[in-house]
Amino acid sequence: MQTNEDASILLGRSIVAGLAGQQFHGIRDVDTVCGYTINPGINDFYARYERRGIASTIVDEPANTSWRRPPVISDGTTDSAFMKSWITLHKRLNVYHYMERADRLSGIGSYGVLLIGSKTGELADPLTAVSGQTDIIFISPFSEKHSQITHYETDTKNPRFGKPLMYRITVGGDVISTRSVKTQDVHYSRVIHIAEGLLDNDVLGEPRLKKVFNRLEDLDKIVGSAAEGFWQTASPGYSIGPKKDYDLDPTAITDAKAEFQNYIHGLQRLIATEGIDIDELGGKISDPTAAFDVVMSLISGKTGIPKRVLLGSEQGELASSQDQANWLGRIQARQQQFVEPMILRAFIDRLISINALPEPSKGEYMVTWEDLFSLNELEKARAHSLNALAVKNMTEGEGNEELITKEEKRVLLGLPGVADGS
């Protein structure tokens, strides 16, 4: 259900978006001429996410990389009531798994939600207090498509002014079809609202596909036309007609067509015709590589995702070191500016506020993200292997043995130093 507030915001955005394609004082509409979807919405984004690999990568990769190395929560102790309860809850509900899914789903549309399931009250009731972490029985992520906002706070004296009060969530998603449990009204206190790229409001963020939607449609044209062109050229057309100055029997053309169909679709390898010319209609395939690369460069530039990541051929070492460094730098900033405050801390703080988690020791907790630039064991092994090759090349030849000490060799190979007693 779309509220009046939603409709007003979306109408304003659609008017502005509609102006983007206007040229020559409105005489030319580029969006219409090029066949672009004007003002794409959640269903358009969802369809591309489900059916186009590049689109799903654009949505998934920021979340996948952000949660690749989960954070560590600590209040400075290991045996406080807060830490014990958090560790138990985290393991029981697999919290980071659902947060990563909510992160991905929120990027398809303008927002997503993480539903907190509790033994206390109905979903439409405020969730004010529980008796402990065991009362939290599930958490479930939903995209904008399955979590519509039905009411906003309109009181300008309320701290939640302009924010959602009630949602209508399709709690069964596309799985449970029983109407009585499929769609439920849910109070905001049972929901963590997740929106990235917020600008003029705190509710509707920017879908990750929105700014590159035209380019994704360009990819369809480029790849689709190349595939169709190959098909048409691999299976060329033919022209059938009478030979010059030849008096044909009225049924000759029909018979020639039948012969040709048997040749194409059957096992017949001969064409028997009299007085008929059969000419192949030639065609030429244009190489789509240059056009494809231009579009992919534009998509990469807007999303910040290296092209090799977008194309699925990247495992770290395959990208340029500068691209990889820039990408991981963006992800680290995203972890600190979006993932931690808008998802992780929002969830933990909500649980603390309803007594699902005890207050942390000294009243606060810390979130530590593992350095994305640090090497895993496989990457370390590869680095040591390259170092060993370099050492070998450096020390080969008479008189080169002293260029590097034994201690330096052990360090490059990742072995304990001589001073360590090895």
Description:
The chain is of the alpha+beta class and 422 residues long. The protein folds into three domains: 254 residues, no CATH class; 72 residues, no CATH class; 44 residues. 44% of the residues lie in helices and 14% in strands. The chain has 14 helices and twelve strands. The protein has a three-stranded antiparallel beta sheet, with helices on one face. Strands 6-7-8 form a three-stranded antiparallel beta sheet. Strand 1 and strand 2 form a beta hairpin. The protein is extended and about 105 Å long.
Helical/strand content category: alpha+beta
First-to-last CA distance:
69 Å
Biggest beta-sheet profile: 3 strands, antiparallel
How many beta strands in the DSSP annotation?
A: 12
Low confidence ranges: 314-319
Based on Cα principal axes, name the global outline.
Answer: extended
Number of domains: 3
Give the gist of this structure.
With about 425 residues, this protein is α+β, with helices and mostly antiparallel strands.
Secondary-structure blueprint:
Elements (H helix, E strand, L loop, with lengths): L3 H16 L2 E2 L4 E2 H4 L8 H10 L1 H14 L5 E3 L6 H13 L1 H12 L5 E7 L17 E8 L3 E6 L11 E7 L8 H4 E5 L3 E4 L18 H22 L2 E6 L9 H14 L10 E6 L7 H15 L3 H4 L10 H33 L12 E3 L8 H19 L10 H7 L10
Antiparallel strand pairs: 1-2, 3-12, 4-5, 4-9, 6-7, 7-8, 10-11
Helix pairs in contact: 3-4, 4-6, 8-10
